[in-house]
Design goal:
- The protein is mainly beta and about 160 residues long.
- It is built from two helices and ten strands.
- It has a four-stranded antiparallel sheet with strand order 4-3-6-7, with no helix packed on it. Strands 1-2-5 form a three-stranded antiparallel sheet. Strands 9-8-10 form a three-stranded antiparallel sheet.
- Its main location: membrane.
- It is found in: Membrane.
- Pfam families: FN3_DSCAM-DSCAML_C.
- It is a single-pass membrane protein.
């Protein structure tokens, strides 16, 4: 009898990442086992979303026993992209997240938007200010910057 043990499943962003205006904490216990092989180590990389390019390697050997990892010295009011890989004997699971840091006054003042051309890949990354409240999607949809035939993603904190 052959038993197939899956790789670890990535966690929800809300259980993994907690950020303030200058740092983010990653809660490693958020990675669910659900019968999967135990995580041997994590690789943690990040970058500011509006400045695409090379990922900044935080560590390529974070052990689960650490329970949490801090990403210090982040810029206030900035959207960050996080790339984590959980390595186990069954293989690796990659997960990508987008999260904001708070401003110095403790709020999120912008929406990060990324346009993707299905045939050509990423076409632009832009930071647009959005009005306060829960009307972000209708505000974003009314912008004249939309290009027909492209997919748009809006990320916001809840």
């Amino acid at each position: 009898m052959i038993v197939v043990v899956p790789v670890p499943a990535p966690p929800d962003q809300s259980t993994l990442i907690k950020a303030n205006s200058s740092a983010a904490v990653l809660h490693l216990d958020a990675w669910r086992r659900d019968g999967a092989c135990p995580v041997l180590y994590f690789v943690v990389q990040y970058r500011a979303c509006e400045a695409p390019g090379d990922w900044l390697l935080h560590s390529n050997n974070v052990v689960p026993e650490q329970r949490s990892v801090a990403l210090p010295d982040l810029a206030p009011g900035t959207w960050y992209c996080l790339l984590m890989a959980a390595h186990s004997e069954a293989g690796a699971t990659d997960a990508e997240y987008v999260f904001p840091t708070l401003t110095l006054t403790g709020v999120i003042v912008a929406v990060y938007a990324c346009g993707v051309d299905v045939e050509k890949g990423p076409i632009r990354q832009q930071l647009w200010n959005a009005p306060p409240g829960d009307n972000v999607e209708s505000w974003f949809g009314a912008q004249s910057r939309m290009i027909p035939g492209h997919l748009y993603f809006v990320f916001r904190a809840l």
